Amino acid sequence: MKIATIIIRTILGLLFLYTSVSYFLHLSPEPVSTGDFKAFQLGLMASTYLFPLAKSVEFLCGLSFLTGKFTTLANLVIFPVTLNILLINYFLTPDNLPLAVFVFVGNIFLIFAHWENYKGLFKMD
User: Fold this and answer.
1) Any transmembrane segments, and where (predicted)?
2) What's the pTM value of the predicted model, to 2 decimals?
3) How many domains does the chain have?
4) Which domain covers residue 9, as residue numbers?
């Protein structure tokens, strides 16, 4: 289980780092959007703050996953992002769904791998 946790954590960390650095440094061209996804993406871009915020969160959590520091916190912080990635791909771009499922399930796996650290959140005092 420990080896699987390290492998999943490293893959997710590399993926989050790549997507965030690529966004900020414009390393890869923007994929062409069509239909409902294009309208959705234009709305997100119009907010001017949401993409940089999400990519900053991805960058910090990617660093956390790669270094193994603060992974319990990073799992919680990145969870809404991974859920959003899953839902966007499910409803708007199903071609990318396998990668989105991997990212979401990987995040859930890491949460369960560190479940002992989260038990205090669910105590009823």
Assistant:
1) 7-26, 46-66, 73-91, 97-115
2) 0.88
3) 1
4) 2-122
For the chain, give percent helix, strand, coil, nearest 5. 80, 0, 20
Q: How far apart are CA 93 and CA 86, in angstroms?
A: 10
Q: Which tens digits make up the pLDDT trace of 5-56? A: 999 999 999 999 999 999 999 888 877 777 788 888 888 888 889 889 999 9
Contacts of 114 (CB under 8 A, 6+ apart): 71, 72, 75
Whole-angstrom distance, CA of residue 18 vs CA of residue 26: 11
DSSP for residue 69: S
C-alpha separations of 120 from 64, 74, 75, 84, 123 in Å: 21, 16, 15, 26, 5
Q: Which two tokens stand for residue 18?
A: 């790549």
Banded pLDDT at 114 (limits 50, 70, 90): very high
